[in-house]
Structure formats: structure tokens, C-alpha cells
């Protein structure tokens, strides 16, 4: 099979559809079959919002999940409607995948190489910074010599993913030059068939019996 047989659809007006993961409109590019045999369901494609959403369901993954499609003489056309209906049912609420508590737990240390931790220690002091990092479940990644992980823990205490970002320990600002240093734990771990469904960072704190105000930024 040619490597180039399946590719992202070239842009033309109206070709982008709503993303099945983040549900934003006109940001989702579908994959197409150059030979016109296989019509992928509308969940096979890539979201433009690489950082905030990150959804990318490739033909390779699709064939792995649906091994029968390639072996059928019509390329799975008969199954197409069933598959796309099934995919339609799955979205917009696909069952999310989670990061194991073990992985999260191991990241909640090594703050001495965590640039934002070091910066905040100068501002708030170490005791208060540690309290906040524990409260918000903030981890450390070895990436780029030490970066922060903002774990997205949902209200049931399950971790949806972690956003890895690089900060300047002297200024407390994000490092965006020569590029934005942003990654995701589920990408770094190469978890197979990971279904990303983000939640708000800090959402787990909503379970606490408290009258504290909630601010969304
Ligand atoms: Zn999206």
C-alpha cells in the first residue's frame, strides 16, 4: 500500500468539519483515500487545535481498530454506514482514557528541577509553594531538563492527561522562543489507542466542601 494513498484532505471551503473530540467547529481535517475505495468515518482525521485538543486519529490506527475493512473487496463500503453511525454514537462523549495513578504519583517530586516551582519558591516561599503544588497536583517532567506537568484530574479523581510546559525559573514566564515548549503526557508515553478527553485543570478541587470562589482563566 502506498504510503501516500491516505492523506489529509486538501483544504477547500467547507471541507473542515467539527472536531469529534473538542467539538469546535470547522477545525477538523478528514483523511481521504487517493484511490477513492475507502471512505473513512468522520472521526478519522486531525484537529487543528494541536495543543488544546490534540485529537489525531490516523488511517493506520483506524485499520488497526477495524482490521476487516482492508480485507473486504469493497474496502469496507458496506460497513461504512454502520461504522460512521457507531462513531457518531461515540461522539461527543467517547469514553476517556486515563493516566495511571502510579505515573502521576512518581511525577509529584523532583521539584528542584521544576522551573516554575523554583520561581514560585522565591515569591511565596518553599512551604507555600509545596502546599499549592500538592493541592493542585502539579508534577515534574524530565523533558527539556525539567518542566512542569499540569495534571488534568477530573471530579472522580481520574487523571485525563497532563500538559507539560517549560517555564523560565528566573522570570516565571513561559518559554515560547524559538518555539512553544508544550507537550502532553499521553503523547510522551505513546499510549496505544489513548482517547483524550480533557477536563479543566484544578477540576478535582470542586469536590471539596468549600465556599471558595471558582475562577476560570
Ligand atoms: Zn479538537
Whole-number average pLDDT? 87
Number of strands: 8
In oligomeric terms, what are we looking at? single chain
Report the span from N to C terminus: 47 Å
- What is the topology, as strand order, of the major beta sheet? 1-2-3-4
Shape: elongated
Low-confidence stretches: none
Largest sheet: 4 strands, antiparallel
Structural class: alpha+beta
**Considering DSSP H and I runs of 4 or more, what fraction of the residues is helical?**
25-40%
- Quickly count the domains: 2
Bound molecules: zinc ion
Kindly provide the radius of gyration, computed on alpha-carbon positions and rounded to a whole number of angstroms.
21 Å
Helix and strand pattern: EEEEHHHHHHEEEEH
Strand content: 15-25%
| Count of runs of 4 or more consecutive helical residues | 7
